[in-house]
Amino acid sequence: MEKISELIKRIDDDDKKYIEHLIEADQMDLLNHEGLNEKNILDIIKQIKEFEEIYPDGILKYVQRAKKLLKKSKNKMSAYANYAVEQPDNLIKIKFHWKDLPLPIRQIDKMSDHLSWSGLLTNSCDKPLNRYTSLVSSCNEENFDLDTTTLATSSSFLSEGGNTPVSTSSSDEFACVNSYQQVLTKTDELNNVIGDMKEEADLRGKAPQENQENQENQKNQKNQENQENQEIQENRENREYRENQENRENREYQESNCNYSSSTVSVIDEFIHYEEVGLQYIDKVCFILLAGGLGERLNHKDIKLKLMTNLVSERTYIEYYCNYLKTFQNFIKKNKDKEIDIPFVIMLSDDTYESTVRFLHRNNYFSLKKEQIHFLKQKKVLCFKDNKANLHFTYENDTFHFSKKPHGHGDIHSLIEKHVQLDYLIQMGYKYLYFFQDTNALAMKVLFVCLGVSIEKQLHMNFLAISRKPGEEIGTICKLTSLGKSMNVVNIEYNIFESILNCTSEREILDTDGCSLYPGNTSAILFEITRYNEILKKTNGVVPEYINPKYTDSSREHFIHPTRLESMMQDFAFLYFLNGDEEKKNKVGVTELNRFLCFSTVKNNSLHAKKKIKNNIHPECMYSAESDLYYSNCAFIALACMYNQKNLRLEKMEMKMFNGVQYFMPPKVLIEPQFAFTLTHLIKKIKGNITIRNNSTLWIKSDAIITNLFLDGALIIENLNQEDSTVPIILDNNLYVKNRGYEIVTLHAKSAEGQSDNASIRGYKLVKREALVISL
Fold first, then answer.
1. Which BP terms does GO give this entry (predicted)?
2. 776: Cβ–Cβ under 8 A, 6 or more apart, which residues?
3. pTM over 0.85, yes/no
């Protein structure tokens, strides 16, 4: 201490308090370090000043809080140990029973075909259409026949070997081939030339040659007639076979539907009711994206926002979100006759700030305006090296450097309080804030259901939740009660929730599906802006903190990595119940939906995902996120078909393994918001029976009306006419598409070399072989 006492004498009076705070906080490992001197102690004071700019309570309170929490963590004590756990209040469940949807998942690797598809193709190699192995046919509602072939106007084929008009970043190139009409025109010209040449040769020919040719022609004609008769008979037999198969499938489908259609339709009615209520407020929502993390855990070398949501469109997550906001703005302009720039707030960190801003600028903010995007940067806090809350530091080149890590996404509230003018947004008529995470693409699909619930139930805070399985590493939404005091709806992290149950000797209650009665938090939350702003001003946006060290062993003495105090965005819910009598005014609720409709995030690399699968827990990896995006779109189409009393036919989805992760891969169905961003809209766009075979790709990029569709391959529907994008593409009443499509190909060790991160972390790439493009 003599050394410290001497150093303090040489420090300015204004700075002495920082050293005194370190002494009071028992930071003797630092203060007794042999390298401490008059020069580097000033560097230490400078770092503490920088820390206190982002943590106004100061370093002393920071360390004191850490000591209390570390003691509880070591002893496995919970702050809520004396609380009783109940289901949360204001819980609205809008859920479809898994078995009620025609979305079968097969648990084996190989699937047998139930239909003979060879009879659906024309065998004559003389017809120029066959070289594309793609057919567009007119058919009746129940059966797909090839008696009359119509051509899809303004359509084209995409095949391997050229440039893709879909994305300039595609690594698998394919060419645009002329449309059916262009092919037929060239064929007619060629036939005319051949006819003229034949006529000229006949005039120059000799009589013996004419006789010989006539005999050969008669013989060929007879053979051709026999062959045509045989083909007619084969086609008739194939058609009868298909009719029998289709009729049998229809009967089976209708028999299975009769048991659940009424209950399912009633849930759909409830779903679209809340959507319609929410859509009325589409121009009154601001968006808050939390994107402070890198993709290092995923073996991705860049920000997570640059991960691709899927390999068909190759849209990154940030482009995906911007596209939704742009579509909302266009919808508001068309339906409410007003132009707005929806406020979009993005919270970043030191790790992600520069890369995110640069990426958005380079891509012209993905059609949004620069002025409507507001960047907030989260700073880092000091780390601890042990249970005594000693600060972790390194000593190098006669300088001390404190270790730092992000304080958690709970900082978003204090950053909003400091840097976002909520009073101005309220004055402009905005009513709600929608918070969502960086890699949950499905959160956008159910926004208006949650918004409708918030409006109708007058909720100040509304959690978007899913059914969770015990042991799943997501937050638990519940009600906590102790000594007559209740916190009606709060989020408790999974490890703390388990400790509460252990203290009360209770077991989690499960429903018939094996899911907990306590829903799981998706980190997508709606706040009513006025009440949120009032609480923000009272609390400065400071939410309860926690600590979660990773211990080396069961003794819980040593950390694997330095730890720090953290905070979570969702813990703002506690602030609604910590204001005395005012808590009675506050109303927090939960909207629980099916996971496959609203939640699939990217947290794990393939190694950790494989372990999750073994424990029957969702893998939350890049492969599963892409698969779930396709599956969610299939589910929404299924609901639209069921509501319209039409059929969606899908084959049993195969389980596939990539990078050691076994998961299912549905047909690659992408529904862009320009086509439909609510189930309400989708019901109006899907008007017939839909059949999609496994490995098919359906990418709907613009407004369209689809009646009956059979797809075995790849189909892209788009509107390239930006000036007249309000006119929908109306497809033929019965559309049959068959081509080589897009194929997912496994990446092995050698083939993975030179591939992008987006392919290698999935364990597969997409080979774009052939597609039919229908466009305006």
1. UDP-N-acetylglucosamine biosynthetic process
2. 154, 702, 719, 720, 721, 724, 727, 729
3. no
